[in-house]
Amino acid sequence: MKQRIITAVIAAALFIPFVIYGNLPFTILIYVIAAIGLYELLRMKKISVFSIPGIIGLLTVFVVLMPEDFADRVTEATTYSKLEFLMIAVVLLLIYSVIVKNHFTFDDVSFILLSALYVGIGFLYFIETRDAGLHFIIYALIIVWATDSGAYFVGRKIGKNKLWPEISPNKTVEGFVGGIIVAVIFACVMQFIYPLSTGWVSLIIVTIISSIFGQMGDLVESAIKRHYGVKDSGNLLPGHGGILDRFDSLLFVLPLLHFVQFI
């Protein structure tokens, strides 16, 4: 626990100034974090990020991560849209599978493309959310933190019914509900201190849905790790694991806030 706290404090001290400042430094940081996230996924599959498929996957993430205004300028300069760049990646990966005589299979192609989209789209909405306003990022971080903390402490205190033992043996139904309740409480506190541009009913509904999606994001990451037989996605953050271990919930919550037009 001590190591987790020390790591969290140091990571927050490094990360929060970029979040507050935003703009290009924040975008560059997100590119770096997303690249590490893809590296962690590829390592689970035992694919080197420095291989031809790994490099194509990394470039695909960078394409997906392009903010809308920058993507428009790239399209004007190259006449290629994001979708067309993605199609190029698909074709190159499939051709590579033929060249290496199926030592790199269609399943491997699918893994790299889905990994690139999973990481790229999730972190793209980190950039888009920050561009929409610092208070939206703060709201998302509070919801994820409150949900994780609430689920942990409530589950530890009164948890009896396992939520999804095949995926995450320690999570309980009581913790799942407790995380939602704690997230709603913190969202309401934030609304009092720094009102978001929404009514109370909308705020509570969006918070409940976001808390559920955040916990599903956590479960998805647990399912991936269990499938590939790894405990943590990485070891970059001592006591916490890797980048995906820390951002798995946000990769689901941030796109959701845009999809429901909360942002």
Automatic annotation (TrEMBL):
<comment type="similarity">
    <text>Belongs to the CDS family.</text>
</comment>
<comment type="pathway">
    <text>Lipid metabolism.</text>
</comment>
<comment type="pathway">
    <text>Phospholipid metabolism; CDP-diacylglycerol biosynthesis; CDP-diacylglycerol from sn-glycerol 3-phosphate: step 3/3.</text>
</comment>
<keyword id="KW-0594">Phospholipid biosynthesis</keyword>
<keyword id="KW-0812">Transmembrane</keyword>
<feature type="transmembrane region" description="Helical">
    <location>
        <begin position="6"/>
        <end position="35"/>
    </location>
</feature>
<keyword id="KW-0443">Lipid metabolism</keyword>
<feature type="transmembrane region" description="Helical">
    <location>
        <begin position="175"/>
        <end position="194"/>
    </location>
</feature>
<dbReference type="GO" id="GO:0005886">
    <property type="term" value="C:plasma membrane"/>
</dbReference>
<feature type="transmembrane region" description="Helical">
    <location>
        <begin position="47"/>
        <end position="65"/>
    </location>
</feature>
<protein>
    <recommendedName>
        <fullName>Phosphatidate cytidylyltransferase</fullName>
        <ecNumber>2.7.7.41</ecNumber>
    </recommendedName>
</protein>
<dbReference type="InterPro" id="IPR000374">
    <property type="entry name" value="PC_trans"/>
</dbReference>
<keyword id="KW-0444">Lipid biosynthesis</keyword>
<keyword id="KW-1208">Phospholipid metabolism</keyword>
<keyword id="KW-1133">Transmembrane helix</keyword>
<feature type="transmembrane region" description="Helical">
    <location>
        <begin position="109"/>
        <end position="127"/>
    </location>
</feature>
<keyword id="KW-1003">Cell membrane</keyword>
<keyword id="KW-0548">Nucleotidyltransferase</keyword>
<dbReference type="GO" id="GO:0004605">
    <property type="term" value="F:phosphatidate cytidylyltransferase activity"/>
</dbReference>
<dbReference type="Pfam" id="PF01148">
    <property type="entry name" value="CTP_transf_1"/>
</dbReference>
<feature type="transmembrane region" description="Helical">
    <location>
        <begin position="200"/>
        <end position="220"/>
    </location>
</feature>
<dbReference type="GO" id="GO:0016024">
    <property type="term" value="P:CDP-diacylglycerol biosynthetic process"/>
</dbReference>
<feature type="transmembrane region" description="Helical">
    <location>
        <begin position="133"/>
        <end position="154"/>
    </location>
</feature>
<keyword id="KW-0808">Transferase</keyword>
<feature type="transmembrane region" description="Helical">
    <location>
        <begin position="85"/>
        <end position="102"/>
    </location>
</feature>
<keyword id="KW-0472">Membrane</keyword>
